[in-house]
Amino acid sequence: MLLSVMLVQVLAMFTELPLWGCYGIVGSGLVVLGGVWLAIGKSTAADLAVAPRPRVNTRKENGQWHPEQTTSNRR
To answer: At the N or C end, where does the chain have fewer CB atoms within 10 A?
Structure first.
């Protein structure tokens, strides 16, 4: 945040632009940069291989299977 304010002040000092114009330029640049990062993040997230969530029936089957498979035959 402070670096963006510093950039505005540097831009205002070295150009003839009014201060509001410098804020507009820096703010617009940050919006464009954020949009690019968002697009890159969305495309990266779309390429990730995520395991699908189990269905309700699968959970019920696992609940029935699990006790049968884990009980010991020893007495």
So the answer is: C
Going from N- to C-terminal start, the domains of the chain cover 1-49
Residue 2 CB neighbour total at 10 angstroms: 6
72 class by beta-carbon count within 10 Å (0-12 exposed, 13-18 middle, 19+ buried): exposed
User: Residue with structure tokens 């070295």?
Assistant: 14
The pLDDT, as a whole number, for residue 63 is: 59
Does the pLDDT of residue 69 top 70, yes or no? no
A 10 A CB-CB count for 22 gives: 19
Beta strand segments in 1-75, E: none
What's the pTM?
Answer: 0.60
